[in-house]
Amino acid sequence: MRSVPLEIACDESGSEGEKLIGGQTDVFAHAGVRLSPEEAADCLAELRCRIRSPAVEYKANHLLRTKHRRLLEWFLGPRGPVHGRAHVYLVDKKLLLANELRALAGPEVRPDDELLAAFNDVLRTRNRRDPATGSFFAMVGDTAELRAKVAEARDAKPLDPLVPAILRAVEYWSAGGERVFLVHDEQPSLKGERLARIESTPGSAGVRFVDSRTDPRVQAADFLVGVARRIAEDELNGNGDRVLSGLLAPYVDSASIWD
């Protein structure tokens, strides 16, 4: 085992907390890259040189523009800077919610958007008398057993995919026996018990939160996670690009919540 932890730079895209349906995004993505600061700086310099935008801060949407298609293919491709050195965890938010619902109400449940939205509201509320609770049980069937399961899930299963994604990143990068130290884009929600859970998970050497603009490695992760979420979301919504989906595939964790 290494005496010095392996540093992995991370960022997320599509995070909306426990709101899994009816939000701004259908996909949550988390990415980690294994690059030195010098390698990441070279990567960003190459992207800036070829994108040639006057923007102060470059983001994934610059790389996703049609005119930069070749650059995007290079970035993800086998000759790109992150190929074989990065990991992406994807979550189809609606699928995550449907899986949770079936686990509680039974596999025969056929959740549509209305039912999933009601279920999401029930799990997010801390008010047991919230009208959303009555709406949900009216749709799925009101039994004492189901109410008990939902109450337990409400207290024990936070739906926000961010912490599970980070825990999976630690598990993935520490699989070879190395301890992993995460350098992560700032996440105000990660504190208290949530942060303690990350720092105490097997393989973790800790986590440091930084402004992505100050660390080129996190900026590289930001580029990757942004394009990964967009490619995945297009595919999920029937507008997938076969070439880009193929280029993204080697990065995607097999444990992703994805059909």
The average pLDDT is 93
Number of strands: 5
Low-confidence stretches: none
Radius of gyration: 20 Å
Shape: globular
Biggest sheet, open or closed, and with what strands and sense? 5 strands, mixed
Order of the strands making up the biggest sheet: 3-2-1-4-5
The span between the termini is 35 Å
Number of DSSP helices? 11
The helix-strand sequence is: EEHHHEHHHHHEHEHH
Class per helix and strand makeup: alpha/beta
- Fraction of helical residues: 40-55%
* Residues in β-strands, percent: 5-15%
Task: Explain this structure.
A five-stranded mixed β-sheet has the order 3-2-1-4-5. The chain has eleven helices and five strands. 36% of the residues are buried. Strand 4, helix 9 and strand 5 form a beta-alpha-beta unit. With 259 residues, it is α/β, with parallel strands linked by helices.
Task: Give the topology, please.
Layout: E1 6-13, E2 27-33, H1 37-51, H2 60-63, H3 69-76, E3 86-92, H4 93-105, H5 113-124, H6 131-140, H7 144-156, H8 162-173, E4 180-185, H9 192-200, E5 204-210, H10 216-236, H11 242-248
Helix pairs in contact: 1-10, 4-5, 5-6
Features:
single chain, 259 residues, alpha/beta, 5-stranded mixed β-sheet, 5 strands
Tell me briefly what this model is.
The chain has 259 residues and is an alpha/beta fold. It has eleven helices and five strands.
